């Protein structure tokens, strides 16, 4: 039969022994393995306590009390050492901390160049008294084509390969339907710009199936081609700088008559046609790059919106935002706008 005095002595011996071992524990891992060794379910203390049932009732009481005291002592030794190690770890971390080091600058997002250029173009026109309107990207054939003087089978419909949703519903191929929507909901005078996404069945180095346009429309009594030229020249110089030259070339759009395309002096070679001793690759040596299409609103369009074409005249224009951004920032590849490479996007 086990003897109480021996067991008590062994139990009490644990305290001194464990205290010495704890003093040498330098890491939280050391500490944990000591906890398991002494206080664990299969540890030293549990091993000694397993002998209790073999004692006589009186001895068991004595040894049981001793075991409780030892357990409390071991636990507080362990807690004390744990607190000590944690405190040392914090002190060490603080010793490495240099409050004079510059902080880490958090990553701040930036606006996409298409967003920036859209805002800049709209701003240039709102300063001239235009207001900004938007409309649906899913359009009916009527607004996208028919009311813009492109009846069914009109060959100009092919100029913009269309993505059809159904026979009568399309993804708008240009922002020009906003001309119609605006004139149907307002009486002249109107002066609006309309930014937004447009869609065409087109995908290669210089075309993406979705891109951005900004439409402009001004209608009032006595508006002439000279107003169109003056407005667009002021706009171009505002965006590309005061020394930019502007050229109007006759062109064709079904919804304007007469129509023109506007070229600006090449932003890369300054209009000289060559750059770094070679033919300028942006204007291909011509000294000019195309920037937008425009013209005087066709009387057939006024008829579609019930504006009196005898009384009112107006001009309209439309431009590609990516194109303006490419010219303005010298970006050579349209795909950059859609690849979402943060190194590219964060530059603007
Ligand atoms: N909608 C034409 C296009 O997408 C541009 C344009 C707008 C031309 C308004 C003239 C007037 O090419």
What percentage of amino acids are in beta strands? 15-25%
Helix content: 40-55%
Tally of alpha and pi helices = 12
- Unreliable segments (pLDDT under 50, ≥5 consecutive)? none
Gross morphology is: elongated
Quote the distance from N terminus to C terminus. Answer: 88 Å
Would you kindly provide a written description of the structure presented here, covering whatever features stand out?
The protein has 348 residues and is α+β, with helices and mostly antiparallel strands. 41% of the residues lie in helices and 21% in strands. It is built from twelve helices and twelve strands. It has helices at residues 4-24, 28-39, 44-49, 57-95, 113-126, 141-144, 177-185, 225-240, 299-304, 321-329, 336-339, 342-345, and strands at 131-132, 138-140, 164-166, 169-171, 190-199, 210-220, 246-253, 256-265, 274-275, 278-279, 288-297, 313-320. A seven-stranded mixed β-sheet has the order 1-5-6-12-11-8-7, with helices on both faces. Strand 9 and strand 10 (278-279) form a beta hairpin. The chain is elongated. The mean pLDDT is 93. Residues 174, 176, 215, 253, 256, 293-295, 316-318 line the site of phenylalanine.
């Amino acid at each position: 039969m086990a003897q109480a005095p021996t067991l008590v002595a062994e139990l009490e011996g644990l305290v001194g022994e464990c205290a010495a071992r704890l003093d040498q524990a330098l890491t939280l891992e050391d500490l944990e393995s000591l906890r398991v060794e002494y206080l664990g379910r299969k540890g030293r203390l549990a091993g000694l306590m397993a002998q209790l049932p073999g004692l006589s009732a009186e001895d068991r009481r004595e040894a049981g009390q001793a075991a409780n005291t030892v357990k409390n002592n071991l636990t507080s030794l362990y807690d004390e050492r744990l607190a000590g190690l944690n405190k040392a770890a914090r002190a060490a971390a603080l010793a490495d901390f240099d409050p004079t080091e510059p902080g880490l600058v958090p990553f701040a997002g930036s606006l996409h160049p298409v967003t920036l250029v859209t805002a800049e173009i709209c701003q240039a026109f709102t300063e001239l008294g235009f207001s900004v309107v938007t409309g649906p990207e899913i359009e009916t054939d009527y607004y996208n084509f028919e009311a813009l003087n492109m009846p069914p089978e009109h060959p100009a419909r092919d100029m913009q390969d269309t993505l059809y949703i159904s026979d009568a519903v399309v993804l708008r191929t240009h922002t020009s339907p906003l001309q119609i929507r605006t004139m149907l909901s307002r009486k002249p005078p109107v002066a609006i710009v309309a930014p937004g996404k447009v869609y065409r069945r087109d995908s290669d180095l210089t075309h993406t199936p979705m891109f951005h346009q900004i439409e402009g429309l001004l209608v009032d009594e006595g508006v002439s081609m000279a107003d169109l030229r003056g407005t667009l020249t002021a706009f171009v110089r505002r965006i590309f700088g005061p020394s930019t030259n502007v050229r109007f070339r006759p062109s064709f759009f079904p919804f304007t008559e007469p129509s023109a395309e506007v070229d600006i002096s090449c932003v890369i070679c300054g209009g000289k046609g060559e750059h770094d001793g070679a033919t300028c690759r942006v204007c291909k040596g011509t000294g000019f790059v195309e920037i937008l299409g425009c013209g005087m609103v066709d009387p057939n369009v006024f008829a579609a919106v019930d504006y009196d074409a005898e009384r009112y005249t107006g001009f309209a224009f439309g431009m590609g935002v990516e194109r303006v951004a490419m010219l303005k920032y010298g970006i050579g590849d349209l795909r950059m706008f859609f690849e979402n490479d943060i190194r590219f996007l964060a530059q603007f």
